[in-house]
Structure formats: C-alpha cells, structure tokens
Amino acid sequence: MKYLLLVSTALLFTACKGVDAPPTADAVTIAKTPALQTGMVAAANPLATEAGLKVLREGGSAVDAAIAVQATLGLVEPQSSGLGGGAFMVVYDPKAAKVWAYDGREEAPSGASATMFQDPATGKPRGYFQRVGSGQSTGTPGAVVMLHAAHQDYGKLDWGPQFESSIALAEECFRVSPRLAGLIKRFGGYILKNDPDTRNYFFTENGEPLPEGFLRDNQPYANTLREIAKNPRALLEGDIAADIVEKISQEPFPGTLTVADMAAYQPRKAEALCTSYRGHAVCGAQPPASGGVAVQSILGTLENFDMAAAGNTAAGWHLFAEASFLAYADRDKYVADSQFVDVPVAEMLDKDYLKSRAELIKPDRNIKEVKAGNPVSFARGKDATPDNPGTSHFTVVDKDGLTVSMTTTIEGAFGSQRMVRGFLLNNELTDFSAVDKDADGVLIANRVAPRKRPRSSMAPHIVFAPDGELLFTTGSPGGNSIIAYTTKTIVGIIDWGLSPQEAIELPNVIARNGSLRMEAQNLRDAETSEINRGAGAKEFGMSEDIVSALEGLGHKVRRSGGEISGLHIIYRQDNGTLVGGADPRREGTAQKP
Ligand code: GLU
C-alpha cells in the first residue's frame, strides 16, 4: 500500500521571526519500499566500503554500516573527513515512508565573533591559509554524535562493534593510498609540517612525505575509537575534549573553543528538504547546508525546460549552466544557519518563483550579468565566503531498504592540519564569511556568531521514483562545486536516462559567480586545482564541439584539467536489485555484501 505524504519545504528547525507562511507547499510523493535481496555500500576508499559491507553481513543496518564507513574513512582518507569533523546525513526509512535530515555540522564556540577572521589593524580578512591553520578555524566536531543520534533511531547492532574493523586497521596498519600520498606531498610544504603530531604521522623518519603503499599504523586513533565505542560523546567530554581544547589554544591565532562549548553540542534532526522534479521526490539536507536548497533550485529552474529533448548537447549544458548561475546567486545570498538568520527556503524553491527565474534564460545567448533574485524582500549582503575542497561522500542501502546518503568533512584537505589523538581537527569555521558586512555595509547571512553553524555546500540526496519508492542516492565532495556535481547526476539519470556510472562520468560543469568551468578533453588553456588536482578531464571531459558551441552562446568557458568530484550512487532498478556507481576521479568502490 502506498502512503502519500505532503512534505512541506518549510523548515522545521528555524528560529525565524516575521516570515510569512510559505507561498506554496510543494507536494512530493514518498512511499514505503519493499525489502531488497541485498544491500550495498559505495564509499571513497575500498577499505571503507569493506568495513560497511562487513557490518551489513553481520546483520547491521545501513546506519550501523555508515558508522563503520566513517570510522574507516577517518583513518584511510584522513585528508577528507573524520572524527574531528562534521557531516550531513539523509536517511530514508522505507517502513515509515519518512526521510530525515541529520545535521552534525560543526558549531562555533561561544567566544566566536563576526569579525574574528579579520585583522583588527586593517579590518580585512587575514590570508586564507592563515585562517585555515589557526586555532580559530575549528568548530565543535559533530559527525560522531550525529551518527549516534541516527543509531538510536535506526541501529540494529549495539553501539560499539561498528568500530572493530577500523580499530584493527589502525593497529595492524593500512596501506597509504595513491591519493593520500599525493596530497601529503602537495601539502608537505604548507602547514602540515608545522604541528609535531602531523609531522610525525604523515612523514617518514627521514622527513619524507609518506609514499604510496607505506604501511601506516595509528594506535592513538584505535584508542580514541575504543573510547567512543564506550561513550559516543567521548570527543565532547572528558580527556579527549580537553586535548582538543589544548590543541586549538595553541598559536598561531589560538581559538576560543571550550570544553563547555563541546559539552553543549547537540546534533539536529529535521524532516529532509524535499521538492519534486518531474514527478520524482528529491530530498536533501536542511540549512546550514546550502546543497539541498541549491540543487533543488537548479532542478526547479530546469523543470521549465525539456531537458530530455535538449539532451547531453550544447543546448542541454547551456540550460544547465544558466540554471546553475541563477541558483548559486540565490544560495550565496540567502543560505546560512536558519537558527540564526531567516533563510527563505520555501520562497527560493517556490515553483512560480523558479519559473520567473527560468524566464531569464534564453536558448540562443547567455545571461550577461546574473543576479540573485528577490524571493523575499529583506536585504542580505554580498557573500564573501571561501570554500576549499576536502570532504567525502558515501552511501549505504541495507536489505530492508533503509537508505543513508551522507557527506562528511573536515573542510579543507587535512582540515586545520592540527592532530589530536590520531585524528585531524576540522577547519570548518572558515566556511563562514570572513567578513561580516559587504562593501555597502549590509550584513552577510553567513557571518560568524557564537554557537552558529557555518554554511555548507554539502548536498547528500535521496531521489524517489514517481510512485514514491526509493530510486537512487547521490552526493559528492568538492567545496561549492558539490552542488553542480550532484545536480549533474540527477539530470543525467532522470532526464538523459543514464546509468549511475554514466551519470558520474559526465563532464563536471560548474557555473557560479560569472565563471563557467568545465572538464574539457582539449586541455589547451586548462586550469587545474592548486589544492587537489583531480583526474578525469581527458577521459570524461566535454568534447571541443560542445565547448565551442557554448562559447558561441556567449559563455566564457574555463577548461578544467580535472575536477575533484567524488560522487557515489546506489540505484534501485525496476526488478528491485541495486546497482552502484563510484567516481573514477577518486578511489572509491560500490559493492554488495
Ligand atoms: N566544507 C565544505 C562544505 O561544507 C566542503 C568542502 C568540500 O567538499 O570539499 O561545504
């Protein structure tokens, strides 16, 4: 029997004052899904995938497996996510036909201030890497307690056995992956060498960056996991919390996070943010994640065009780019932590509003100057938030159909590059705007405030078939490009009929803030990321014919020599079997138990 739910896009967790009722509620269909033959895990490292599969084999739920995946990623992919970071997790309950958004985003200390990243002498933000490596960049880590909240709702095993694989790997050594080795090398000359703990961990006795294949142990990490297995709040209370505070209080630019700030931290849970796209419910995370709103805003704009007919051609990518420019402009201006500022989510996703945005798009030329729209009348300053890609996305479905789509991060590569008890501390607070007001003196929504959570681009999603049953999960790392990477897969699967793997291997096209960047096969003039060069442009880049046609429409295309998406998808086929997709730009796998 099918259960039709009307899921309102209104936020459940907002402290909004003075905002009228949303103009229209968006009706989406979410139904129960029958049990499956088997589950699946897709994650950014084969050891992490295997840890999740082992838990599924032992009778654990998708949430139990997610705990094992996260604990292993923090060890084998420490540059991207871990115990010291935060996450957003979307969970579909196939028995209740409900979709939940868990928020384990880091939180600013009570001593944080809107101008803390500015140089008091000049009023200008301090240099980006100075902010990253400062004690001020670390917020209360929320990933573990968020997983614990989900475990209380959906765990089948006791809290504890999920950590066994990662404890064994940490004690018995794991092989440093090619990507980790490459990143240690790239960051060796930066701040990774300053902290004695990171220096000892990521470099050999001769001071060389750990090479690929090096057998690395991490006894402190195993010890920390044992503490967490006994007490899910072990990071936020007691000795470990005291060590975190001690590390953050060190120069340069000591932070103000206290043990009391950490003890006060609670993960949030709300109904997921859902809209419909061509009859499919599309459900993502709530603010302070901007990924849910922005992905759904691009889709809501594209719904006004026949994307299937436009196809994977210059015409299709032109529409994709224009809708992205418009949605990113709105996201940049309005999205922040909705417990601190009014975030007009319902207005931004209102179908009539998005139709008016779509009317700005012309098939034969690009929009010369894209501006944020006015879904509401209040003013917001022009955004000035940087975004430095690290992060990991993984997904698990168990045989009951319980589904997890989780994006997890310590922000930039190696976070704040300070290590405590075998794990890295996040630099998530650099996801706040580094200044509080724009050039006109208007306050920026994503400015720092005590106990506020910084805006994120993370966009874990679960998409449902028109009958409301589970169809697929998607999401990616990649800084603010996450929004573009993730939306590409939804368009690829729903509009262009691609398999998950084909959708992942579509060229990445990022249209934001006046720049149209895309993976291109022709690497003349190619740009590569300074921070974290990905692979894939040669294999999956846009053909030069399409690039030239887009240039003919007025787009100034920046050819990217490789993007750092790390998309992972699980897709439920008509016959109830699962297929997965893993992004070849990273090291992940998608497998069944
Ligand atoms: N810290 C970023 C965010 O939450 C993610 C960085 C990344 O994906 O690499 O949006």
Question: How would you describe what is shown here?
Answer:
This protein is an alpha+beta fold and 593 residues long. The protein has two domains: 36-263 and 393-431, no CATH class; 270-386 and 456-577, Orthogonal Bundle (Serum Albumin, Chain A, Domain 1), CATH 1.10.246.130. The protein contains 19 helices and 20 strands. The chain has a seven-stranded antiparallel β-sheet, covered by helices on one side. Strands 7-8-13-14 form a four-stranded antiparallel β-sheet, covered by helices on one side. It has a three-stranded mixed β-sheet with strand order 15-16-17. α5 (164-172) runs antiparallel to α8 (219-230). It is globular, with a radius of gyration of 22 Å. Mean pLDDT is 91; it is low at 1-25 and 524-534. Glutamic acid is lined by residues 387, 389-391, 409, 411, 428, 431, 456-458, 477-479, 482.
SSE topology:
Elements: E1 40-43, H1 46-57, H2 62-76, E2 86-93, E3 98-103, H3 128-132, H4 143-154, H5 164-172, E4 174-175, H6 178-188, H7 196-202, E5 215-216, H8 219-230, H9 238-248, H10 259-263, E6 268-271, E7 273-277, E8 280-284, H11 291-302, H12 307-310, H13 314-334, H14 345-349, H15 351-358, E9 392-397, E10 403-409, E11 419-420, E12 423-424, E13 461-464, E14 470-474, H16 482-494, H17 500-504, E15 509-512, E16 515-519, H18 537-540, H19 544-552, E17 557-560, E18 568-572, E19 578-582, E20 589-591
Parallel strand pairs: 16-17
Antiparallel strand pairs: 1-9, 1-20, 2-3, 2-10, 3-6, 4-5, 7-8, 8-13, 9-10, 11-12, 13-14, 15-16, 18-19
Helix pairs in contact: 1-2, 2-4, 2-5, 5-8, 11-13, 11-15, 11-16, 13-19
Bound molecules: glutamic acid.
